[in-house]
Automatic annotation (TrEMBL):
This is Aminopeptidase P N-terminal domain-containing protein. It comes from Tetradesmus obliquus (Green alga). Residues 1-23 form the signal peptide. Belongs to the peptidase M24B family. Residues 80-214 form the Aminopeptidase P N-terminal domain. SUPFAM superfamilies: Creatinase/aminopeptidase (SSF55920), Creatinase/prolidase N-terminal domain (SSF53092). Pfam families: AMP_N, Peptidase_M24. PROSITE patterns: PROLINE_PEPTIDASE. PANTHER family: XAA-PRO AMINOPEPTIDASE 3. InterPro entries: Aminopep_P_N, Creatin/AminoP/Spt16_N, Creatinase/aminopeptidase-like, Pept_M24, Peptidase_M24B_aminopep-P_CS, X-Pro_dipept-like. Keywords: Hydrolase, Manganese, Metal-binding, Signal. Its cofactor is Mn(2+).
Length: 532
């Protein structure tokens, strides 16, 4: 088990800002979430009033009533009004067969150990349709015309359980806050499902959601519908709806991408020869959460040296040596929408000649792929372009002198580039994957574009051995071309060297000063990984 040891607070991330910048960042966070002392007082009064509400009136999550500093009237997420969720349900009903039902369970809890749960993360399809951030089951029932009914099945009140976990959504709040047409106890779900499925023309449900809330009960209740061939998957309809983002969703995605990019910018700014991978991973997580993100989008990849070639490296357990690059792949989740950003930089502030050649090869491919990310093209064609361009780059680098361009294009490139150039992005990191790479791109689609080259750490590649470079950005398709949402962190190698070089120089000066005062009784600051 990896344990991190540090003897000073600055190594947790405050040093990335400096006192003034840290104070400013904390001030911005507080002002953005509280606005003013009067708003804070108002929030306290409303929370006190909430204690006197009936159990059924509790929403179990932030609302405008409890968090007016975060949510506007009838908003379920910043900028997302309840009417948008109603429109989403209406759009799903239009895609469903007449007289059918769609069953959408929430995510179930995952546990660290015993009764200790991980922080809850809602299922993306369920959250998209309902705005509910708690465990429950939703049913959309079409009536054969353009209408639909929204049923929500919520856990029954349990005083002892609520003592531990807090109160969850009550039946009154389910109707008033989330606009459910009908609300039932989760205990009624099996009998109700059987009744609805018996009269429905079709039942839309994803039977591969084994870890969803009440999955076993739902599957058993649908046994007869399965036997009659009534069931069909729901996910393709949901992904079709979620693929193109609304203006409100795009605002949240811009914020998520900006938060991640700024945190990565800070990671560059504190890098130096000998920096620890875990320090940078911690710096990133600290930065995004300070800016308002609820969680990381996925474990931070902070691979130094030859580990920059490991696509999903996440051990982050070593120091990065002088002359090595650091590849960081990281993102955050902001009110349900995620980001995914990658940069590669020299920790000492200066690319070697070979590192810069590989980097500039990938950078040019990124530029060309962004030009191709336009309405009418497809993600699949953008990937084909990346293969063509990276194959040309591999030939020009001379890594395999006897290999021709045709050899690389026929598959040899996979030794150096083993993943797709991108994926759709939204409420999940690999979002709406049933849409596929051959769907014609439309304005409002967001995707990650991430070309890369990974030179195996083998003597035959000489000074290129062990160099891994990936550049990844969150990209919005617009009528006028690609908009990079994550441009708050540089990609230009000269800008990167200037940013990292300043920090590396300060680190060398600090080390020199520390050595000149080696007789001091104060022990040196050490950040290390200790294996227990």
């Amino acid at each position: 088990m990896l344990q991190l040891c540090s003897s000073t607070l600055p190594l947790l991330g405050i040093s990335a800002f400096g006192p003034a910048a840290a104070a400013s960042a904390i001030g911005n966070l507080l002002s953005g979430s509280l606005h003013s002392s009067s708003s804070f007082a108002q929030q306290q009064r409303q929370q006190q009033q909430q204690r006197h509400l009936s159990r059924d009136a509790l929403a179990g999550q932030p609302t405008h009533y409890t968090h007016p500093n975060v949510l506007g009237p009838d908003e379920l997420a910043p900028g997302l009004h309840i009417s948008e969720f109603q429109a989403r349900r209406r759009n799903l009903a239009r895609l469903m067969p007449p007289g059918s039902i769609a069953i959408i369970p929430a995510a179930s809890l995952a546990y660290v150990t015993g009764v200790i749960p991980y922080p809850y993360r809602q299922d993306a399809d369920f959250l998209y349709l309902t705005g509910v951030q708690q465990q429950s089951v939703a049913i959309i029932q079409t009536d054969g015309s353009a209408g639909y009914r929204f049923q929500l099945y919520v856990p029954s009140p349990d005083t002892e359980k609520e003592r531990w976990d807090g109160a969850w959504v009550g039946q009154q709040a389910a109707q008033q806050v989330f606009k459910a047409d009908e609300v039932y106890s989760i205990l009624e779900l099996p009998a109700r499902i059987q009744q609805l499925a018996a009269t429905a023309n079709a039942v839309l449900f994803d039977f591969d959601r084994h870890n969803s809330y009440q999955f076993q009960s739902l599957r058993q209740s649908l046994h007869e519908a399965i036997g009659k061939g009534k069931t069909m998957p729901l996910r393709p309809h949901m992904h079709r709806l979620r693929w193109v983002k609304s203006p409100g969703e795009l605002a949240l995605m811009r914020s998520s991408a900006t938060i991640a990019a700024q945190a990565m910018h800070r990671c560059m700014a504190v890098s130096h020869a000998g920096v620890h991978e875990q320090l940078l991973a911690t710096e990133f997580e600290y930065g995004v959460k300070l800016a308002g993100a609820s969680r990381l989008a996925y474990p931070v990849v902070a691979g130094g040296g030859a580990d920059s070639c490991t696509i999903h490296y996440s051990r982050n357990d070593k120091q990065v040596g002088d002359g090595q690059v650091l590849l960081m792949d990281a993102g955050c989740e902001y009110h349900g929408y995620v980001s995914d950003v990658t940069r590669t930089w020299p920790v000492n502030g200066r690319y070697t000649a070979e590192q810069r050649q590989v980097y500039e090869t990938v950078l040019e491919v990124r530029r060309r792929c962004l030009e191709a990310a336009v309405p009418g093209n497809t993600l699949g064609k953008v990937h084909q372009l990346s293969v063509q361009l990276l194959s040309e780059g591999l030939r020009d680098l001379g890594l395999l002198p006897r290999a021709t361009l045709e050899d690389f294009q026929k598959g040899l490139y996979r030794e150096f580039y083993c993943h797709s150039v991108g994926h759709y992005l939204g409420m999940d990191v690999h979002d709406t994957n049933t849409v596929g790479p051959h769907r014609t791109l439309e304005p409002g689609v967001v995707m990650a574009i991430e070309p890369g080259l990974y030179i195996p750490d083998h003597p035959q590649f000489g000074a290129y051995a062990g160099i891994g470079v990936r550049i990844e950005d969150d990209v919005l398709v617009t009528h006028s071309g690609a908009e990079v949402l994550s441009d708050a962190v540089p990609v230009d190698p000269d800008q990167i060297e200037a940013l990292v070089g300043a920090a590396a120089g300060e680190a060398r000066l600090s080390a020199s000063t520390a050595s000149s005062h080696s007789s001091s009784d104060e022990p040196p600051v050490v950040f290390r990984a200790a294996v227990a």
